[in-house]
Write a structure and sequence with these properties.
This protein has 137 residues and is mainly alpha-helical. Helix 1 runs antiparallel to helix 2, helix 3 packs antiparallel against helix 4 and helix 3 packs antiparallel against helix 5.
């Protein structure tokens, strides 16, 4: 009998939960709430695996990943805000600014939410090492 890989176990269960959430009809329900709660708990467990892995990585590796993730995030934000500006942008005053704000908000919690989370995790590891965090430029 082999030992269960805890990382694989979390990944498999997360996939099951995401499938179950997708199958639920739209709208609030106790089943959705329970699945979302379990999903959040599993994500927290998964984050601990990443932090433990990061602790054994070289500082230069972490800095390289951090730089790459920041570039990816910044490019996506520039792309999104450029699109918003093309849709009316600064010539539209507050309305154009609202488009830009919506684009940035969508990136921060939506498609790039995991990137921001990962950036924070790497910065935390580097802070714990009392290493200088590379500048965002």
């Amino acid at each position: 009998m082999s030992a269960v890989d805890p990382v694989k176990e979390v990944a498999v269960r997360l996939a099951e939960i995401l499938g179950a959430l997708a199958a639920l009809p739209d709208g609030p329900s106790s089943a959705r709430y329970q699945l979302l709660t379990e999903r959040d708990e599993l994500r927290a467990r998964a984050a601990k695996f990443v932090v433990n892995r990061d602790a054994s990585r070289l500082t230069t590796e972490l800095e390289s990943e951090l730089d790459s993730l920041r570039r990816r995030r910044d490019q996506a934000v520039r792309s999104r805000t450029g699109f918003a500006m093309g849709m009316g942008g600064s010539n539209q005053g507050p309305v154009g600014g609202a488009w830009v704000k919506l684009g940035v908000q969508a990136l921060s919690g939506g498609e790039l939410g995991w990137v921001n989370t990962r950036i924070s995790a790497i910065e935390d590891v580097l802070r714990e090492r009392r290493e200088a965090i590379p500048d965002r430029t």
